[in-house]
Design brief:
single chain, 351 residues, alpha/beta, D-Maltodextrin-Binding Protein, domain 2, globular, binds fe (iii) ion
Length: 351
């Protein structure tokens, strides 16, 4: 017994010596191989289960994810200013318009990935594969169920009906969500119809401008407004805390093109130094939750969004919102018409 132990100790010592020798003599190549694998991301997302999702990616791949956060606009500014010197390997934006602009300015590179092409439907990614939608967020009509009947609602444009005068809460024109929504109206109806039949009628209803979807919902719940427009997942967040939350979702434009849906998506920078790691992260995220039972720990589920990948699971609260028609427009239109949308809102007095 003693001899057996001693021989194990001797073998361990020999093994350790060999390992140390290997590390010592390994020099250059060994050092390069053991350098930490990273991917640096400029992220406009800062909520939900983002950290836990990336921790899971690191556990599975050994690649560390480093985040630098800001608004889409400020991150675009940074990418422009840094040029080829940017530390960012990838961007994670909350709006297809911002991704399109980054791609058009040459800040993102084409990614040739069969996995991404297979996982992400055409309408949710760049036609030239420079960015890919990972999760979907619907911008919907919300209403106080104690004060409004769903039969009183129909389309985004119908919120311009005088019956909503003084009862409407909207996000300001400076926010990317508003800009993408109005850009989609322009892509669909043209500038003149958008201005005269949607935006000016909204403005005539003296909307209360609130620069937070959550506060819009809280204001409606408290009776400060009766209707508004927010992303669907903010309602899910409220319902997760309080199943009796009085504000409900109404799916707009179901007899027309469908509800406005934007993506949160990613692209790889032209200057990426960790390109392979970035591709690996995009491919991994595009399988979002595949093979798992529940969704709360995925990029989409952690924020109550719809996954871009149609085979990924949907969070039960979100599944409870039912099925609805989505405007099938290519999301790049939000970028193409963003400048026109900003000018139009300014013209029409939309604050
Ligand atoms: Fe949001």
């Amino acid at each position: 017994m003693v001899r057996a132990t001693r021989s194990i100790v001797a073998r361990l010592a020999l093994f350790l010596a060999l390992v140390l020798l290997a590390i010592g003599s390994g020099g250059g190549p060994a050092a390069a191989q053991s350098a930490p694998q990273v991917v640096n991301i400029y992220s406009a997302r800062h909520y939900g289960a983002l950290e836990s999702v990336f921790r899971r990616f690191t556990q599975e791949t050994g690649i560390e994810v480093r985040l630098s956060q800001g608004s889409v606009q400020s991150l675009l500014e940074r990418l422009r200013a840094e040029g080829r010197a940017t530390p960012a390997d990838a961007v994670l934006f909350i709006d297809a318009g911002g991704l399109w602009i980054a791609a058009e300015e040459g800040l993102l590179q084409r990614v040739d990935s069969a996995v991404l092409r297979q996982n992400i439907p055409n309408a949710l990614r760049d036609p030239q594969d420079r960015w890919f939608g990972m999760t979907q967020r619907a911008r919907v009509i919300v209403y106080n169920a104690n004060r409004v009947r769903p039969s009183e609602l129909s389309t985004y444009a119908a919120l311009g009906d005088p019956k909503w005068n003084g009862r409407l809460c909207l996000r300001p024109s400076s926010h990317i969500y508003t800009q993408a929504l109005v850009a989609s109206f322009i892509a669909l109806h043209g500038e003149r119809v958008t201005e005269e039949q949607i935006i000016r009628p909204w403005v005539r209803n003296n909307p209360r401008y609130i620069d937070s979807d959550t506060r819009i919902l809280e204001t409606i719940a408290a009776g400060g407004c009766d209707v508004g427009i927010t992303n669907h997942y903010y309602v899910a967040q409220q319902l997760a805390r309080n199943p009796d939350f009085p504000v409900r979702i109404f799916w707009p434009n179901q007899n027309e093109a469908g509800a406005h849906v934007n993506v949160s998506g990613m692209g790889i920078t032209t200057a990426a130094r960790n390109r392979d790691n970035a591709i690996r992260l995009l491919e991994w995220l595009s399988t979002d939750g595949k093979g798992q039972g529940a969704a709360p720990d995925t990029l989409s589920g952690g924020n109550f969004e719809y996954p871009a990948n149609p085979v990924s699971p949907v969070h039960p609260i979100v599944a409870g919102f039912g099925t609805f028609k989505i405007d099938p427009m290519g999301k790049f239109e939000y970028g193409r018409f963003q400048p026109a949308a900003i000018r139009l809102m300014e013209r029409a007095g939309y604050r």
